[in-house]
């Protein structure tokens, strides 16, 4: 759905869509190939919310901790997607993850395009 940004996604432990599962991502960020290992921390189907904890990979070179939460709110026929990035920088010299947020938004747009086709 988003081959420009996500090259591969594999589950390493657990099952898709279950809390505690470990997912390994190969993706492109800022024009460079990156990897991330994430643990599904929370799934709330009623609220349409999933929270991931980054437990390994390139993102943790700059951050002590990094969490991504995606929430979908349905209003009529529209779905509003909200991304929340929670992080602790390793130093004050580390930039805020604006380009990672842009990556999340671009992936969301690709998913929307896929579903509309």
From TrEMBL:
One of its GO terms (biological process) is defense response. It holds the Pfam family Bet_v_1. InterPro entries: Bet_v_I/MLP, MLP-like_ligand-binding, START-like_dom_sf. It comes from the Eukaryota. Residues 3-117 form the Bet v I/Major latex protein domain. This is Bet v I/Major latex protein domain-containing protein. It comes from Solanum commersonii (Commerson's wild potato).
